[in-house]
Amino acid sequence: MAVTQFEAADARRCFPCWDEPAFKAKFKITLEVPAELVALSNMPVVKETVCGPLKTVYYEESPLMSTYLVAIVVGLFDYIESSTLEGTKVRVYTQVGKTSQGKFALDVGVKSLDLFKDYFATPYPLPKLDMIAIPDFAAGAMENYGLVTYRESALLYDEQLSSASNKQQVAITVAHELAHQWFGNLVTMEWWTHLWLNEGFASWVSYLAVESIFPEWNNWTQFLDETTSGLRLDALAESHPIEVDVNHASEIDAIFDSISYDKGASVIRMLQSYLGAERFQKALASYIKKYAYSNAKTEDLWAVLEEETGEPVKDLMTTWTKQQGYPVIYAKLNGQDLELEQAQFLSDGSSGPGMWIVPMTACCGSYDLNKKFLLKGKTDTMHIKDFAASQSGQNFWIKLNIDQNGFYRVKYDDELAAGLENAIKAKKLSLMDMIGIVEDSYALSVACKQTLTSLLRLLNAYRHESDYTVLSHVTSVCLSVNKISTDANPDLSSDIKQLLIKLLLLAAKRVGWDPKDGESHLDVMLRSLLLIALVKLGHDETIKEGIRRFHIFLEDRKTPLLPPDNRKAAYLAVMRTVSTSNRTGYDVLLKIYKETSEAQEKSRILGSLSSCPDKDIVVQALNLMLTDEVRNQDAFYVLGGISLEGREAAWAWLKDNWDHVVKTWPSSSLISDFVNSTVSPFTSEEKAAEVSEFFATRVKPSFERALKQSLERVRISARWIDSIKSEPSLAQTVQQLLLQEF
User: Fold this and answer.
1) Pair (320, 332) in one structural domain
2) Is 383 annotated as a binding-site member?
3) Which of 143, 177, 308, 421 is catalytic?
């Protein structure tokens, strides 16, 4: 099979061109290929002529488009097809024999095109849309005009083999790529500095589409996963602004990161919330019409939004796109006044110089009592006398940043924090606000702005929670706390582990191992989430049950006792018990890996093999990446699974194999995965110095930012550990919470 991938600056390697987004042209493509193969490009075929073993395929001329969106795919494919309401033909191409796995993506694709046509008030610009699954594809997916390419795991969904989270990922990815047909392809960023216009918007609007198609998935609440990853990266001194000056083609790849995508999408959600959904949509439609078939920069979008709404969009948004970072708002109750102060939030505990115009929202005791205003200076005071008159005592609480619409964190004084903790226990808060409180508290704890002791007390308030969206954030925080306490306080770490297990056990017992008739999509995902977390926390009962079911699965691959959603937990459980002297589990999983042709199953196994506590087995899993058994695109699954016990071995492995790794994975995103996965888990200044020394003569621009960010994470962890060691009441609090009746 032959496939092109031109973004960002590789069209020039295929044909001579002005290979920059603003040089739009019409393309008329002709291909000469072996007669038995399917040949696809952006536009429909006009005619084919066959001459002996070769055929010549002529395509319609394209509308004006950028070079990076031109695409060609040649190979042996089957397809299935459908049409939009307007009659646009939509096809999903797969390897021969896999078309049934394309049905779900085809359905989401057709619905997304219909939805975006209405949302942007502009028809889909081309006569056809093809989506194609490529087995070896370094990007997740690529929005080439009219011919969207995907890795198999991002497009194919198999009822028998895929999990609920795979299904969701396919829907989001398809909606993201199809949103680009308007935002990116029809209207294109003027230069790579404005990449976020493409990616941030496509990310944001993909959630809008999936929320409309699958309302039961509670997708906007899950959007906070994106916001969280943006907030975490942007709290590093080594982050970068949304708009980055790009001076050379080699610098472009490095900005395809969580800032362009996740922070970009989150500040758009913040702006939409501030302006109101209807005004925002009308203004976007005007922007698309005005710049169709041409290029725009960030300021052009602000100008249209300002013109349509009369709001100071440019002043407001420039503070969010041109400077890096974001604020933490300190909230303090002083009699009838709520005193607010903003400062740039950094995970290393320092305060940066940034200042923002912050769209503030607040509610008091009820979501019916709320306020909206812009915090323009460093401080402000909100009078809450009338606002809070009806609230008192136990029922009194104030929540800022309602539903986490704003891209900032909040640090409450003790009185306000206690009120919110009561509101969580009394189930008074929205799911999004419950997520926001636990995420802010965790981040403030990492930055040593509050204690781990107080974070554990807060986590304890979530012990009766049963919602997937909230628990996905709670478990992520629990796993991070488990890792840091292992290094910070080895004597207490097993008690902390027991406490974290106790927190998750109620919900885990409710969903159990076995699927229930008629249960929701989110409960299916919750089961997988909790079982994986309990295995990682070392919960004996869950590990034993995972191994028991795995053995049944070995006898019968279709057993209902281990559906796709629960397999990752069982695979991790098996790997917890593998060692050099007892390696059966590893060998059996490797055998399943080799036998399956299903990409999602392969990725589940790769992410489990390196999770073994035995260092030698971790090294074996890493060595597997150097063989033909693992596609280069899939290395990050192995890297993402490395156990805490295996981090020293992984670092030694990376040093030994560095030259080979750089040659084999030259792209900046892949090489950055190696650096980030092996360096970030460390937690001491000594280790940071050792890593710096190793890379002093080896660093390249393609992964320099990733290296600096990883080293910064190591130093942040080291600082957090020092702070945890000096917490006077940590051990006592852990014992108290362990003794509490649930």
Assistant:
1) no
2) no
3) 177
Cα 516–chain centre separation: 29
Asked whether residue 180 is marked as a ligand-binding residue, the answer is yes
Amino acid at site 488: A
The tokens describing 371, both together, are 């306020």
pTM of the full structure:
0.95
Could you list the residue range(s) of the whole structural domain that residue 213 is in? Answer: 187-324
Same domain for 208 and 315, yes or no, is yes
491-530 pLDDT, tens digit each: 999 999 999 999 999 999 999 999 999 999 999 999 999 9
Q: Read off φ and ψ for residue 191, nearest 5 degrees.
A: -155, 165
Q: Is 199 annotated as a binding residue?
A: yes
First to last CA, the chain: 58
Per the listing, tokens 């812009």 go with: 374
User: What CATH number is associated with residue 314?
Assistant: 1.10.390.10
For residues 627 and 625, what is the distance between their CA atoms, to the nearest angstrom? 5
Spatial separation of the C-alpha atoms in residues 272 and 612, rounded to whole Å: 45
For residue 201, tell me if it sits in a domain: yes
Task: Indicate if 238 belongs to the active site.
Answer: no
Q: Give residues with Cβ within 8 angstroms of 196, minimum separation 6.
A: 242, 243, 259, 260, 261, 263, 264, 298, 321
Return the CATH number at 371: 2.60.40.1910
pLDDT of 375 higher than 80: yes
Do residues 465 and 426 touch, judged by C-beta distance below 8 A? no
Distance CA(43)–CA(46), nearest Å, equals 9
Tell me the Cα Rg of the chain. 26
- Residue 727 vs residues 454, 722, 730: alpha-carbon distances, Å: 10, 9, 6
